[in-house]
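FORM 7B: Structural annotation worksheet

SECTION A. Query
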Amino acid sequence: MLAMFARFHLRQFLLGASAALALVGSAAQLHADGPRHGGTVTMVIETEPPVITTIAHTAANSVLISGKVTEGLLTYGFDLEPLPQLATAWEVSDDGLVYRFELRKGVRWHDGKPFTSADAAHSIALLREFHPRGRATFSAVEAIETPDDHTLVLRLGHPAPFLIGALSGGESPIVPKHLYLDGAADANPVNNAPVGTGPFVFKEWQRGSHLTFERNPDYWDQPKPYLDRVVVRFIPDVAARTVAIETGEINLAPGTPVALAEVDRVKALPGLTFTTEGYRYQNSVWRLEFNLERPVFQNVRVRQAFAHAIDRDVLIDTAFYGHGQHTPGFVNPNLERFFVADIAPPDFDPARAEALLDEAGYPRDADGVRLRVTHDFMPTEGSRRGAEYFRQALAAIGVEVELRAQDFPTYVKRVYTDRDFDFNFGGMSNTFDPTVGIQRLYWSKNFKPGLPFSNGSGYSNPEVDALLEAAAIELDPDKRVTQWAEIQRIVARDLPDLTLIAPDSYTLASSRLVDHTVTFDGAAGNLASAYFKE
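SECTION B. Predicted structure
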């Protein structure tokens, strides 16, 4: 084995004193009082999560929580360079077909059992089968080997150049094999009462109210964590969230927590800090997605008509108060290498929209109505306002829209399991690489009822499938860029969805709480370094 790896040109990262300090960076050194133990962080999220552990889910509110309990093989700096977590060293072969990880010794699950390579191997297998993005991320993995208790080897059938960036706790959590042996990972009750290796131990889930996590006294990275407790509250009402932040009831508020109209006022308040760091891994976009199983939306003219009826400037200004940027294709402009600026989205042209509906065979009836459709929107502030704008804009071209509001689990079930929707509006993450974050949305093989945050439209185009699969294994970075540009142009022509805005994201926190954002994922990280200063 050693001889074989000696042939590789390797990039290896070892956990030593300097690497351990890199997780905190120089930030902690700026605080004269230094890290200190004690205190409870009360974090707020907008909606109650469907699950806590993200072994089979990519819901943003679950990702914000999962990493406190379950960790990944790696974490990442703000520059997206890998840093150690459960893996202390890693190697990738020149041909991109062999990944070798040296795993951390002396780590225990929260129930006291030792963490070994068997847990890591079982988790990778579960991610490959059940995780919405993991189905593509780990599709190249043909063999998972555990030569000893602290070595994991992944053997790939073809290169997956994005894989080394997909191993964080929120994206690819490592879960205990002994609790995930039976049944489907997406139905495992442990997902809602997780057992992990992380700095915080799950204590309780008070439905409709909050989650509580207690300090793990046996955490492998002593003397961390510094906090005694993390409480995650669910406050769907934006006004109530804002008041809780202003009064200090909430001291950590990620994910753009206050009304966008209030951002400038709230971030200027004393006792609060404001940061846009910690969102480089997400690169979120908001999309209007058509259900292509509905006969009406199988006609591309109808989809084009909807696109021409929407004024993107009005949407950004009214639904997001200007806190976002245009994106002509499905790539967030922050994902600069893959962003294609010269895609021309359908312009705002209601007259053209009406003509297209006439051509599609949907004239106005005696009441002036051409179509009656339902619209389901993700239960967030921007999505709700966006839905109200869509209803108004589409009414102008003779489309009557019934808005359906629901809680987050019901929305997910309706769209991805029951398939009971006409068109929806919600956010999706591009992540750090389009194969990981975007392929799932347009790959026909990722259309599977019950699989959340995947190909919700049911889109299928063999040309796009072939390009997606080719880009997923292409080691030449320039060729990958070309392939993804072509995918964007085809999808813009086919219009299974409309990507309308790349929203701004930020975190508010108490000025006493420091080092809550020290890695790429910000408050979605494990908070092991966070502490309250005097």
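SECTION C. Observations
The CA atoms of residues 332 and 524 lie 20 Å apart. The chain is about 25% helix and 20% strand.

SECTION D. Sign-off
Analyst initials: ____
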